[in-house]
Amino acid sequence: MTDESSSDRFAHPGLIKHLISHRETCSDLHSMGQSFLIKFGGSPRLVQDEDYYSAKLREEGFSFLFQVDEDGYPETLLREDSSYPFAFGALYIYAKITTNDVQDPVAGFWQFS
């Protein structure tokens, strides 16, 4: 753990800080029908279900690691008159995943509606 920076140079000015305090373990099938902020593991819940977003990543040995999905933001996250950083979309993170290790995480792609 590291202390949070007191600098807001790279912070989104419209976001109000929140603590992530609730987690739920569920199957991919169950997760497809619910909102969430972070989905870790399994299959991504895509905004646009097009293979070309992840085809090259899979070719190069990358697998889905997690996504940050603005559909799961709490209503109190944004200051009035602010916009979502991902245009009410999702950021998909991929990595090279083995039985014992996760290596080379990359921002695979971003989608929005």
Largest sheet: number of strands, sense, barrel closure = 4 strands, antiparallel
Give me the oligomer status.
single chain
* Termini Cα gap: 35 Å
Strand order of the largest sheet: 1-2-3-4
Number of alpha- plus pi-helical segments? 2
Structure overview:
The protein is mainly β. The chain is 8% helix and 27% strand. The chain has helices at 28-31, 55-59, and strands at residues 38-40, 63-69, 89-97, 102-112. It has a 4-stranded antiparallel beta sheet, with no helix packed on it. β3 and β4 form a beta hairpin. The longest helix is centred in the middle third of the chain and has 5 residues, at 55-59. The model has no long low-confidence stretch (mean pLDDT 88).
Labels describing this entry:
mainly beta; 113 residues; globular; 2 helices; four-stranded antiparallel sheet
